[in-house]
Amino acid sequence: MEKVEKIKFWLIFYPAVLIFSILSAIFKRYNLNGKAFVPETILTAAVIFTISVLGSHLAIYFKNKAAKLSHAELNKKIITGFILFLMFIVLISNVVVSIGGFVWYLINGLDLNNFLPNLFKYDLTYANKSLFIWFMFFSIAFFFTLWRKSSKKEQYLREENLKYRYQTLKSQVNPHFLFNSFNTLSELIYSDPGKADNYLQKLSGIYRHVLENGEKDLISLDDELKFVRQYFDLQKERESDKISLSIDAEDVKGYKIMPVSLQLLVENALKHNSMSYEKPLKIKITMQDDYIVVSNNIQRKNIFENSTRKGLQNLSERSKLILKKELIIIENNDMFIVKLPVSRAE
Predict the structure, then answer these.
(1) Is beta strand 255-257 parallel, antiparallel or unpaired with respect to 219-220?
(2) pLDDT over threshold 90, residue 259
(3) In a domain, 150, yes or no
(4) What is the CATH number of the domain that holds 241?
(5) 83 close to 166: Cβ distance less than 8 angstroms
(6) pTM for this predicted structure
(7) Last residue of a domain, one of 125, 155, 185
(8) Domain span holding position 121
(9) How do 281-288 and 291-297 pair as beta strands?
(10) Based on the domain organization, do 21 and 140 belong to the same domain?
(11) pLDDT of 24-74, one tens digit each?
(12) Could you tell me if 55 and 125 lie in one domain?
């Protein structure tokens, strides 16, 4: 869908720039010698079109670079970026005007010995004087727009982070989870009081972890892994050998992670997949460089569930805000994999 939108954009962009270039060339030539349709009009239109297209692609490049920066990082680099952008666009215009002038000399069989003197004396001087103000205006407007967009995005991410914290607290104390947990606990009280006490300790530990860390941006990875083990033990008490969790993450000291993030990914796997003794759901947690990876075999439930993936979306937004890194989601026919960024403690 995104590729289709890009194709539509360029199909509109190029014809629009071409029309703009032709009209600008006609207007310019008419102002210079009172004649709109002269041979020079075609060359002028070609030069304006080329500068406009290359300048637009340069702007898109800078826009994509800025999108990867946090607002604080953009503030540090915006002046340097502005100067570089202005220098590049002026350089592009000078190169294009020079090539256009050279082509004009060749077409008309003019003396090439006069090309460079006239280029620096007339063509480039006129082009820089007439275009520099427009370049300056465009650059200021463009970078101000980037700054404003980054500022709004930062504010939006902060608001989403606050909403997520609130939703996390609510979702962890949801009736479905409590209902299943209390049912299991009730059964254990009669069948195995000692096991019931252990189950209750883990259940209280889960909610203690959420309440203590819900307002923090980052906690130690070791604490989050312990929390996930507790959470999974409660689930396994009910599902037994229908589910399994393996954690292969050694030497995690010094790493930090967003609280309740791993639990959300494990819960997501349990929620959207079927499980049985014959076909158990297998969840695996591993470390890969500066990412903690949660993967599971895909066994979609027969009952249709309209998943909005809001949990993953919120987690991704938090990751961008707090860790300045994207959440990586990989899905194929057999496996669902999420790579969650972690941070090295300073």
Answers:
(1) antiparallel
(2) no
(3) yes
(4) 3.30.565.10
(5) no
(6) 0.51
(7) 155
(8) 2-155
(9) antiparallel
(10) yes
(11) 778 777 676 667 676 777 877 888 888 888 888 888 888 888 877 777 787
(12) yes
Are residue 215 and residue 294 in the same domain, yes or no? yes
In a domain, 163, yes or no: no
- CB-CB contact of 59 with 16 (8 Å): no
User: d(Cα 328, Cα 322) in Å, to the nearest integer?
Assistant: 15
Total of domains in the chain: 2
What whole-number distance in Å separates Cα of residue 274 and Cα of residue 94? 64
142 and 177 both lie in a single domain = no
| Segment 160-164 mean pLDDT | 64
140 and 248 fall within a common domain? no
